[in-house]
C-alpha cells in the first residue's frame, strides 16, 4: 500500500468529517422522496438490549441489504459486508455458493472461526469438531445482518471470529397473502430465481421462499446448480407469547476447475486443470422458536434446532502441476478420491432477560444455557471410478472411516449495570464443557483410532460504554476466546499434509476500544482500536524432509497477535448542504489496518530450528479498504464500490514461492463493483450488477485442499440483470 494511497484515505476520512461537522439534528428512519418512501439503510450498531441479548459496550454492526447497494443475486459478500471494516473475503467462486469470511487474523475457509447463525440459531455443521459453514442462505431472503466482533464469546460461543446472524424476511402483516419474485440472468449463463410468499391471517403469520441459482462459472469446468428452501410459520397464541416452526434447506452441486501454479496463473488465469472434480453439500435445518414476554421486564426465548445433512466430494487430488490425464498403463483416467461426511446435530438454547431497577436507573441481566450434541460419520480416501461425471460410487473401500462425536454443555450470564444515565458496565461469564470422542480406522483401514477428550473452561469478559450528549459514544470491552482443535487437524483428507500428534486447543482474548456516532442524517462514523491474542494458534507450515520432499505440517505454530484500527465513515454529500434535497449522494469508506504477527514459534527445517517470530499470520492482509458512492433519488438507487486488499501469506513460515502454487504470497489487488436498482409502478423493479468492472487479474487465497491445491483464481468481469415484482 503506497504512501499516496494512504494519504488519499486520510484526506477522504477528514473530508467526510469536515462536510458533516455543522449538522446537529436527530437521525430519521425514513425519507419521503417524490411520493416514494426510501428506508435509511445506513449501517448501525446494535442497541444496548435487544430481545434477550445485551450488546452494550460491544463492537457491533447492523447491516440492511439493498439491491441498489450490493449484488444480491449472486451473494456477493464483498459488497454485502462492504461497510464492516476488516472483513476478509475468500472468493472461492463467483456464484456465492459459500460464505467465506474472517476478521482479525481468523481463517476465512467457510467462515470456520465465525459463529454463523440464522434467526438466532447456528448453521455451522459442527460448532466444535468441524465448524465449517456449508449452509447457503440467499441474500435476497435476508432482511438484516447482525454482527458482533470477538466479544461474542460470552453470549454466543467461544469463536475468535465473533458472531454473524442473518435475520430472514417475514411476511407482510397487513396482508393475508403476499408474493415476491425476482429473476436474474447474466454472463456465463448465470441465472438466479428467487420466489417467496408471506402474510398473516389471524394469529398465524408465515413466510416461505424457493431460490435456485445455476451457471457455467467464469472458468471452464466450473458449472454449478444451487437450490435453497425456507418456510416459517409463526403462531401468536396470545399478546405475550408465540411459537414458530422453521425449516431451511440448501443443496448444490459444483464442478471444481482446480488450483493453478504461479506459472499457469500468469499464462492464463481462466484455465482449468481439472474437469472431473465435484463438490456437493446438502444441509437441512428444522427449528422451533418459543418466545414469551412474562411482563415488560422479563422475556424468555427458547430455540431448538436440528442440523442434518452431508458433504460429498469426488476429486483427482494432486498438485496443480500434475495434470489429470489418461494413465498410459491403465488406458483410462486415474481413479478419483471420494470423501463423504454425514452430519446429525441437535441444539437447544434457552435465554432469559430481566430488567430491574438499580437506584433510579434500569439495569438488565441476561443468562442462558445451551445443550449441543453432534455426530459426524466421516468416510474419506475412498477409491472412486475413472469416469468424468459426478459419481460417488467406489471400487475400493474408504481408507478413513470414523465416527466423531461432540457433546457440549454451556451456560452464560451477563449484567448491564446502568451506573449513570450515560455510563454502563457489562461484566459476563461463560462456562463450557466439551466432550469429544473419535473411533474408527485410518491409514487404509489398518490403524484403529480410539480417542476421548473432556475439557472444561470458563470465559470472562467486561464491556464499558459512555454515551455523550451529541449522540456519540465511547465503548470498550475485553473477552476471552477459545478454539478447540478440529477433526481435520487429526485426520486430514488431502495427501499433502502431515499432522502433529500433540496438537492442542487454542486460547486467547479479544479487546476493543472505540468511538462511534452520527450527526443528523448526514454523517456516521465508527472508529475502533483492537487487540487479539491468539495462543497456541493452529496452522500449516511448509516443511522439507531429509529426502528433500516438501510437504505441509499442521501443528500449533505458536502464539499470534492481531492488532490495529478499523474505521468506518459515511457522509451525505448533497444533504450536507441542502437538508431538504430530494436526492442524495453518499460517500462511504471502510478501512482496516491489521498488524497480524507471530510473537513466538519455531519450525524445524532439515534439523535446524527456524524462528517464526514476527512472521505474518496466514491469510491476514495488513490493509483492507472498501469505499463507495451511493446515489439515491426517488425510484433509483445505485452504488459504485472500490475495494483494495493488501498482500498476505498462505503459511506461517511466509513462503514466497512454491512450484506447486499451494503456498506463497497472495498479492494485493484493486477492484471496482457496481449495483443498480430502479423501482417503478409501485410493485416492480429492475436491477443491474457488474462485478470486477475493469477485469482485474487476481486471487484471494492459495490452498492445499479442496478445491485446490494451488491458486484459486477469482472471477474476472461478470454482470447480471434482473426483473422483480412484489405484491
Automatic annotation (TrEMBL):
Q: Which UniProt keywords apply?
A: Cell outer membrane, Membrane, Receptor, Signal, TonB box, Transmembrane, Transmembrane beta strand, Transport
Subcellular localization, as worded in the UniProt entry: Cell outer membrane
Show the Gene3D superfamilies listed in the entry. TonB-dependent receptor, beta-barrel domain, TonB-dependent receptor, plug domain
Source domain of life: Bacteria
Broad class of where this protein is predominantly found: membrane
Q: Which residues form the TonB-dependent receptor plug domain?
A: 73-160
Q: Name one Pfam family in it.
A: Plug
According to Swiss-Prot or TrEMBL, what is its membrane topology?
Multi-pass membrane protein
Q: What is this protein called?
A: TonB-dependent receptor family protein
